Amino acid sequence: MEHWPEGVDRVILDSAESTMSEAAQRAASITRPTWIMAHRQTAARGRRGRAWAAPVGNLSATLVFKPDASPADAAQRSFLAANALYAALAIYVPAEKLSLKWPNDVLLQNGKVAGILLEASGQGPCVDWLSIGIGVNLNHVPEGIENAAFAPTSLKAAGGWDVEPIDFLTTLAGAYATQEAKLAKLGFARIREDWLKNAARVGETITARTGNAEYTGIFDTIDAEGNLVLITAKGPQAIPAADVYF
To answer: For the chain, which end, N or C, has fewer CB atoms within 10 Å of the first or last residue's CB respectively?
Structure first.
């Protein structure tokens, strides 16, 4: 496992219902952070239970670990994952083609190339475990996705280098380990700063839709908790969760 980060395990499966389901089943027994990758998923899912198309040749992986973190701190790991994805993808495609879309997507030439899904378990002040699911369209653009706000694309379709999922996982695992080290040493403020440098549409008008409301305003920043901050006609609005359109 050349260049694989020290102290991190990995499990490579030919097939799984989803790497997130696999992570939940294994979470109680793991002793170290563990990446689980499946060459094929039979029931992949994205945010809010949406289906996630995962053709063979794309990356489907989940990192499961036991951070010493409150639920709110654990949720901020989506920004670490986004920063790591940006760094990993920038090895294979020019960085100026990439941008980060709040809360958890990576865009490549304004098409969706990667998504992030977090799940945690635990009722106490700290989570028992956290799973970070990552899907990256490396070699194939998923078919049959209609009316998407951001049409899917792939690394290969956008002129990026050919890369196999197992090799990309090694790159990503190293990049994520760097983010955790940065968080431990410098705190979330630095993670936030790095994310904002590569964020899509900062300073521009965007729309955020929650389950029961819609907000349109200028994308000002993300705050210290990772909430989206829009400058609306009624003043600044901090939004903890929404789908973003622009």
So the answer is: N
Q: Tell me, which fold does domain 205-245 have in CATH?
A: SH3 type barrels. (2.30.30)
3-state helix, strand, coil in the chain (%, to 5): 25, 35, 40
- Options 3.90.230.10, 3.40.50.790, 3.30.930.10, 3.40.50.720; CATH for 9-197 is 3.30.930.10
The two counts, helices (H) then strands (E), for the chain are: 5, 12
Locate 164 and state its tokens.
């196999």
* Alpha helix (H) residue ranges in 94-141: none
Query: Which contiguous run of DSSP H or E holds residue 65?
Result: strand 59-65
> pTM for this one?
0.94
The tokens 């907000």 sit on which residue?
215
Q: Give the model confidence (pLDDT) of 14-73 as tens digits.
A: 999 999 999 999 999 999 999 999 999 988 765 555 666 678 999 999 999 999 999 999
